[in-house]
Predict the 3D structure of the following.
Amino acid sequence: GAVVSQHPSWVICKSGTSVKIECRSLDFQATTMFWYRQFPKQSLMLMATSNEGSKATYEQGVEKDKFLINHASLTLSTLTVTSAHPEDSSFYICSARAGVTTDTQYFGPGTRLTVL
Amino acid sequence: GQQLNQSPQSMFIQEGEDVSMNCTSSSIFNTWLWYKQDPGEGPVLLIALYKAGELTSNGRLTAQFGITRKDSFLNISASIPSDVGIYFCAGQGADDKIIFGKGTRLHILP
């Protein structure tokens, strides 16, 4: 299957700093990428949907000014957690889809964010 | 919003036993998906179901898309130690979003 990578795989930062997480589709062009958040022992919750070259669509309750998403190319989307706080500590997972809605979404390995 | 009820929450079984878990929804989905997630990893797709009534196998795994389009089950036959992990059902609706169940944690007793 298609490969999606995330970088970094884990990050520890101080409260108040910003952290950028990258999601790359390695062997296909991803017209749409999705960002999820997963708290310990919880399910994956969709945060936002991003289409290449356009603004991301955020789910209800997700602050767009806090979680900045940039999908500048067909192989790269970034999620920036701005002014991170301890409650933002979570496992962030992206997925990527090549084309139409029936195409499979391929998930990345996740990024563990810990805010001190 | 749409919610998925996945059960059981956890299972403790002996190696070699068969496993069954299911998901129900208050809404209709166009696609049902089953994923496995290992600790510290992203979910990996096991089976995708696209038609009501569809029964699909992937090795020792079998899943079915319910006739009502509001439910699905996953069976694992003859479990082995590497089956340990968290299994998530997920539904994909007309809005293209994937909604995940809360997961079933599978433990295999030594």
